[in-house]
Amino acid sequence: MQNDPLVGTQLGAYTIQHQLGEGGMARVYKASHTLLQREVAIKVILPESAGLLAFQQRFKQEAQLVAHLQHRNIVTLYDYGEQAELLYLVMQYVAGGTLRNQLLPGQPLEPHRAALYILQMTRALHYAHQRGIVHRDVKPLNMLVSASNRNELLLSDFGLAKLFASTHHESALIGNQALPEHMMQVSMQGGTPLYMAPEQCLDKVVDARTDIYPLGVILFEMLAGKHPYEGITGNALLYHHAYVPAPSLQKLNPALPEILVQIVERAMAKDPDQRYQSAKDMGLHLEEFLSPKPIPLSPAPEAPVKKRPRVGRSRFSVLLTVFVLVAGIISYLRILPATSSIVNNFSSSTIPCETRESQKYPIAKAFDENFVDDRRGWQLNSWEGITPNLNSQTYTLDVADTNQSFFLCPDPTRVGLLPANFSLSLQITQQSGGNSPFYGIAFRVAYKNQQELSAYAFVINGEKTVLFIEYGKQFPNAYRILQAQQNIAFIQPVTHENTLQVVMHEGQISGIINGHAIIFPGPINATALTGGQLGVLVSGPNSAFNVTHVQLS
Prior knowledge:
six-stranded antiparallel sheet; 24 strands; Transferase(Phosphotransferase), domain 1; alpha+beta
């Protein structure tokens, strides 16, 4: 690496700084744009591949296709170019290392973190699959960890496995014996042997379900602390992927929730027809695990003693027991004394969202907002102390020297009003303003005559406090705190991104922050308000926020 002739040289508009890694077909370098001073990663295709005319043509076609993938959990492809005999890709530089760095032998990851990682990968893959792109080489080395948020993963190297596979041809042997004819030429399908789907090993047709199998393998590896076919190498590994069932994950880690074991088993099914039929389907089951089940308003009838509980019942019972035990101890947290110091943050006037009683709006449909454009009509007009803006796939909100809180919503004629049951998530970073300003998700937002506000909000601040709030003119100061908690360890500090999620089910609310469920002393009943808009809530003074992702499902 020290004698690498490219280090210190100019490649197009980029200065090569140092090598980040090397594979069989390419080297990856950290570089910077000479004029913009932007750090990037450059993947340089090795000459033995780049020199083939057919490869060059496919390379351009694939690069053009992948360049259109704009998703929060996909590494952005900025550019591609040719110089002398070199082909290269210019990509977003992600400085947090790879998921491979976190997979240590004999050290399983915490189940919620593992599930959160794979959930993000299902979203990235589903987005690509909808656009006709199959990754073909899903593996931990292609999953990059954000330096600003260790809970966030980005998937890289879309389309390259297909290019390399169609350029290089290898035969397959087990020991000194040839594999059956249908297992020959496995590399034609691309992929990495540790994570190749059975149909790749067997040189069969691949589709979106091919990317689901390695997600199952990686999730197995994270939960068990070892690869399902640990110690098996070469073509014997391909044979195991194609024909040999994985060992029991439940035996390797008996403490695992059964739902996670079932997710892994289904994702790793040998027959693609027995797997999840889409990455979205797998993601929905992961969301079910990550989202706390709502607590019923009245006790559910007891199941017969002799009947075995259904999957997930034991986890529900544990949560309910915890609620009962701690309710008497921490019930005083319903309204914290500390909240009196931030009352004014919620009592001031706010930006009125555009709902009008006289107008009928559609019911909102699921969407995934990455702020690539303004198709959903988010509020961009400055208003008495706040300046919103939309640029670089970021919705920026600057609050002046005021203690007011502000609601900002998309255009209800384009997005619609919230249905009875939904899941709403928000990725937001407080860039400045100290620890006191609150920010987060607003929902059921409505105005009567553009004056009387009613809404719910799920907000946090830099002091690691979380609040559930209901707004209405009938309350003192026009709001009341439904629930509150302090010292939430997994709330990220100022300048770091937080992911907030609200799940509304049958009139009850559950809250999740950075993949962790918030355990309150009791259920939160939210039946007073219906319909209404979704939105973002921010407050001052002298604070700034970046919103990069909003998702309704």
